[in-house]
């Protein structure tokens, strides 16, 4: 299976991953495989696309869940993947930006992992990160900023996992084709397999829209739905489709990732963003890409505050009333409307009642089963009473 080459060879994590050959692991014909994973999703929802070099099986998913919550994957044993992606917050962390093992803050808000397997690209502004296998390694090895702090400590990481009393057995069940070999590749692939099971399709809106339950949605939420998809507000132009984002992938040829500038900043009057994070321009170096970020999903949006790529807006009413309704916050910051903002962010008038209705609709996208499911929860936590 041919995999596209890395676009950013200067990235240490990407370079190491390329050298390790993690994205070129192909299962040879005739190798014993575990039983395929059975998706637990409604009939109206499609299953995620699964790469041929990392087939799903139940043992691999369970192994990935344990690794996701295991703090031993960080250099000092203080954080796990779940530290920045907490289940009760729809796999975000509630902070403006995430903080790693060295207490060094990052520059971006932790994105929700809700339905992450359906995204055409996996971060705020890196079009090359299209596979969960590639994304999963980054928190482990990132240096700028440091997250889990394992760069250059890969043998130590593998040793910690291999010395555990349970992991060798779990790896043998998850990866029968390698007889349970424990290495960076298998760790990353198990994490990616678990990530593909973070599926949320049981919100009140889902039960109303796709399940035929007319009582699932309040009258206010129904009016909010009408506002959301109206030409006046234009929310549904970018937050579209089954996952409420225009960067959705369902298999086959991968579509181009979509990035937008919403006019959040206009520091110099020419559309500039803070130097710490200029969005897509960091990758492309194209001036027109200043401040462009991927459209986040709105599923479980009521649980994922604060908002925007840098966590700079605290609440949903502020996002709607003080940002989008005003045509982007920069339009009212003394510098005027950003010349780089998406034309769809043109502003609109909204009454207090309409704001409440729009919030009611967004609240209806919360999937309470998703954020409490035992199958997605911390296996190391004390049993609930």
What does it look like?
By secondary structure, the protein is mostly helical. It folds into two domains: 189 residues, Cytochrome c-like domain (Cytochrome Bc1 Complex, Chain D, domain 2); 116 residues, Cytochrome Bc1 Complex, Chain D, domain 2. The chain is built from 13 helices and two strands. The chain has a two-stranded antiparallel ribbon. Helix 1 packs across helix 4, helix 2 packs across helix 7 and helix 4 packs across helix 7. The protein is globular. The chain starts with 11 loop residues before the first helix and ends in a 22-residue tail after the last helix. The N terminus is likely disordered.
CATH architecture of the largest domain: Orthogonal Bundle
Query: What is the share of helical residues?
Result: 25-40%
The whole-angstrom Rg is: 21 Å
- Structural class by sheet pairing and helices: mainly alpha
Q: For the largest beta sheet, what order do the strands appear in spatially?
A: 1-2
Ranges where pLDDT stays below 50 over 5 or more residues in a row are: 1-10, 16-31
State the CATH class of the largest domain.
Answer: Mainly Alpha
Major sheet size, sense and barrel closure: 2 strands, antiparallel
Distance between the termini: 47 Å
- Assign the CATH topology of the largest domain: Cytochrome Bc1 Complex, Chain D, domain 2
Range of strand content = under 5%
Provide the domain count: 2
Number of helices: 13
Counting DSSP E segments of at least 2 residues, the number of strands comes to: 2
Shape: globular
| Average pLDDT for all residues | 91
The CATH homologous superfamily of the largest domain is termed: Cytochrome c-like domain
Helix-strand sequence? HHHHHHHHHHEHEHH
């Amino acid at each position: 299976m041919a995999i596209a080459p890395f676009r950013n060879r200067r990235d240490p994590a990407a370079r190491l991953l390329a050298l390790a050959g993690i994205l070129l692991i192909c299962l040879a014909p005739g190798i014993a495989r575990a039983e395929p994973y059975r998706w637990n999703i409604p009939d109206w929802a499609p299953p995620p696309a699964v790469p041929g070099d990392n087939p799903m099986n139940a043992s691999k998913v369970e192994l990935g869940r344990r690794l996701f919550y295991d703090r031993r994957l960080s250099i000092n044993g203080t954080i796990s993947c779940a530290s920045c992606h907490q289940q009760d917050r729809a796999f975000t962390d509630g902070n403006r930006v995430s903080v790693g093992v060295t207490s060094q803050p990052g520059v971006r808000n932790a994105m929700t992992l809700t339905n992450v397997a359906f995204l055409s690209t996996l971060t705020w502004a890196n079009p090359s990160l299209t596979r969960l296998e590639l994304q999963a390694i980054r928190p482990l090895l990132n240096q700028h900023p440091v997250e889990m702090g394992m760069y250059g400590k890969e043998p130590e990481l593998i040793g910690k996992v291999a010395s555990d009393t349970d992991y060798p057995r779990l790896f043998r069940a998850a990866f029968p084709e390698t007889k349970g070999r424990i290495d960076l590749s298998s760790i990353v692939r198990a994490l990616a397999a678990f990530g593909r099971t973070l599926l949320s399709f049981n919100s009140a809106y889902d039960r109303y829209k796709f399940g035929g339950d007319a009582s699932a949605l309040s009258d206010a939420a129904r009016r909010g739905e009408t506002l959301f998809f109206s030409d006046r507000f234009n929310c549904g132009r970018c937050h579209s489709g089954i996952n409420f984002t225009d960067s959705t992938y369902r298999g086959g040829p991968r579509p181009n990732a979509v990035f937008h500038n919403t006019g959040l900043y206009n520091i110099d009057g020419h559309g500039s963003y803070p130097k710490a994070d200029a969005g897509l321009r960091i990758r492309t170096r194209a001036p027109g890409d200043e401040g462009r970020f991927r459209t986040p999903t709105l599923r479980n949006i009521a649980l994922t505050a604060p908002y925007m790529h840098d966590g700079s807006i605290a609440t949903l009413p502020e996002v709607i009333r003080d940002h989008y309704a005003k045509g982007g916050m920069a339009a009212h910051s003394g510098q005027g409307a950003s010349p780089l903002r998406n034309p769809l962010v043109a502003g609109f008038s909204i009454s207090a009642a309409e704001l409440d209705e729009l919030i009611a609709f967004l609240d209806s996208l919360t999937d309470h089963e998703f954020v409490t499911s035992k199958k997605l929860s911390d296996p190391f936590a004390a049993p609930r009473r």
